[in-house]
Amino acid sequence: MDGNDVDIVLLLQNTVEDVQLVVDEIEGLGYSVVTVVAPPTRDSLVRILERYPKAIVIIPGGVPGDFREYGGRVVKGTYSLKPLPKVLRIVDPRDLSPVSPAEKVLGEKFVYVVAEVLRNVASGISGFKPPFSPPPVFVLSEVYVDNYPNAFEALLEILYRVAAGADLVVVGAASAEAQEALANVYTTVSRELSIEFGVDPPSHGFQKPGLLTGSQKPALYMSVWEGGELPEVDSRFTTVLPRYGSRDVLSMAEDILRACKWGVKEGLNPIVDPVLLRPGASPHPFESLAALKIARRRGMECPAMVGVNNVYEMVDADTTGTIPILTLASAESGASAILVSEESAKSRGATAEARIASYMVSYTLATGSPPKDLGFALLESKEKAPGYRPPSGCNALKLLPRRWGDFRV
Fold first, then answer.
1. pLDDT grade, residue 278 (50/70/90)?
2. What is the secondary structure of 288-335 as a DSSP string?
3. Considering the chain, what is the average pLDDT of its residues?
4. Which helix (H) or strand (E) holds 23?
5. What is the CATH number of the domain that holds 174?
6. What is the CATH number of the domain that holds 7?
7. What digits encode the pLDDT tens for the residues 251-276?
8. What pLDDT score was predicted for residue 212?
């Protein structure tokens, strides 16, 4: 291709996976594109500009520095290459900035890029079905009925969790005395609300008080120990807990693999829960995540769910920071679902925060970009007090569906 015919030069600092797919997508917008692997130094930029005299050179958005000296011909793209074609559908490359990454230049408009990426991630999702590996990352939110004075109050809380964006609300009870109340509340919500629900009873005899006729089958049953008593409840998925024989991470990985295989053998359609204990307990939370990551690398063929509430409830830090970090660590370890609860004033709003974290992390895993400048104003929910409920959503959430199953592809 003659240098005079090139519209865009993508300056890469190393060979990027799927670069040809990105080039093809940009060329589909009507631009002629070449790629150059070189450092963004003055010498290399001058050579590129001379060779392609009419082109705009797009460098990675994370490259530090100010490139205004090149008269608008060197601009910053996105942090990673994959979202760039979606950006160029919205703005002309000449309107990108020589100083700031495209994410900042687009501001609130960048949510449309995020939405398109997430729509691709959500393609094929129908109901609660976590994949073996993320993305996406599903959000489960648990409501313990024995924390509420009556069934009506529990139902109000469940409605709030649904509105906050939970993909699945788990109706649970901590005490045997609440078992019948649990059955009644579950029956009511499964009849009246349009999303799927899970159940977390205090014992496997949950069904003995009687799930009333007409209630739907739980999407998820929590939980069964590997090798233990099987539940009497018919559910689409069952979480299986590994029995750790030691605190050695490699041995724990084998225990997780064994739990997966046992659940498959028993026909439970298992989702493995590596069990994150509170900070200070053994195994430490990130040891369990490390074991999960090793198990995934060794070929574990079960989805995994991580309950992050044991960690954030026991740390004097706000959930707006801990939940995204725990979600990212869980997803990088191979979990495609996280479980939250809202048992303290500090954790009020955890479901909405987990929803945002799920979208941020799923975007990151899909694009290789950091979860930054995406339009999700997590810090807006910083004020916490007894009875606090977060606002209906930040800018980005107002333009996005509230759960994975609601995306229209």
1. confident
2. HHHHHHHHHHTT--S-BEEE-HHHHTTSSS-HHHHHHHHHHHHHHTT-
3. 88
4. helix 19-27
5. 3.20.20.20
6. 3.40.50
7. 999 999 999 999 999 999 999 999 99
8. 44
**In the structure encoding, which two tokens stand for residue 285, read together?**
């939370």
- C-alpha span between 281 and 311 (Å, rounded): 10
For range 308-324, the mean pLDDT: 89
Structural domain harbouring 338: 138-406
What pLDDT digit, counting tens, does each position of 371-397 carry?
Answer: 888 877 665 555 555 555 554 445 566
DSSP 82: T
Do residues 87 and 198 both lie within one domain?
Answer: no
Domain count, the chain: 2
Do the domain assignments include residue 36? yes
Question: Residues for the chain: how many in total?
Answer: 409
What's the farthest any 2 CA atoms get from each other in the chain? 80
CA angle 368, 371, 373 (to 5 degrees): 120
Residue with tokens 């053998």: 265
Residue 60, CA distances (Å) to 16, 71, 82, 105, 116 in order: 11, 18, 11, 14, 20
How far, in Å, CA of 171 to CA of 154, rounded?
9
pTM equals 0.89
